[in-house]
Amino acid sequence: MSDFKPPLPLRAETPSGWAAAALADPEALLSDHAHNEKKAALNALNLSLSFSDAPRGSVLLARLAEEELNHYRRVLEALQGFGWTLRPDRGNAYAKALHKQASKGLLDRLLIAALIEARSCERLWMLERAEASHAALGSAGWLAFLLELERCEAGHALGYRSLAEERFRTEATSRLDWWLDREAEVIQSLPWRSAVH
Ligand SMILES: [Fe+2]
Ligand SMILES: [Fe+2]
User: Which InterPro entries match (predicted)?
Assistant: First the structure.
């Protein structure tokens, strides 16, 4: 993991055995990821309502929502391509545990979104390496898609952090420091499953 630089300074590195555990059921992994991409698109659209007075913010969030919707469609197409079906949404205990600790409205919503993107980025990076040797998911096209996702989610993490800093200034910096500890606690407390988190 040493050559990976997450877009935010995450404080708990995912153990190297995680990717193999996540790949135990690739159909479940991809299904869960499809649901997450859809939720990310909806979240960006919802957050854009808070930036109607800030053109840079509303454009950034509209573009972000568009990218997540594009990811959603392409993960659905990947499921179809592998001959798999979209399984029911099992929910995301990681995101729920973060939101449960939120108390500062828009600032926390932006910082949680930034953290989720940064953690996704780290884990997509790990999957990309593990999947190179995976029977079903080792194709060049699929790996290129994962790399594209990883880079895109890194940009989203930085975008959300910049929106928080522009709107909330120094409060955003100290709150992010607080959230980095909470995120590390949450990610380490959850059992591994066939999902990005
Ligand atoms: Fe995405
Ligand atoms: Fe994203």
Answer: Ferritin-like (IPR012347), Ferritin-like_SF (IPR009078), tRNA-Hydrxlase_MiaE (IPR010386)
Calculate how far, in angstroms, residue 60's C-alpha sits from the geometric centre of ligand 1: 14
Domain that holds residue 112: 18-189
Question: In angstroms, what is the span from residue 143 Cα to ligand 2's centroid?
Answer: 17
Residue 3 belongs to a domain: no
In a domain, 5, yes or no: no
| Residue 181 CA, ligand 2 centroid: distance in Å | 21
pLDDT tens readout for residues 130-170: 887 777 777 888 888 999 999 999 999 999 999 999 999 99
- Looking at residue 135, what is its pLDDT? 73
From the number of C-beta atoms within 10 Å of its C-beta (0-12, 13-18, 19+), residue 113 rates as buried
Distance 150 CA to ligand 1 centre (A): 8
**Distance, CA of 51 to CA of 47 (rounded, Å):** 7
Overall average pLDDT of the 68-91 stretch: 96
Determine, yes or no, domain membership for 8.
Answer: no
- What would the two tokens of residue 171 be? 């409060």
CA–CA gap between residue 144 and residue 149 (Å, rounded):
9
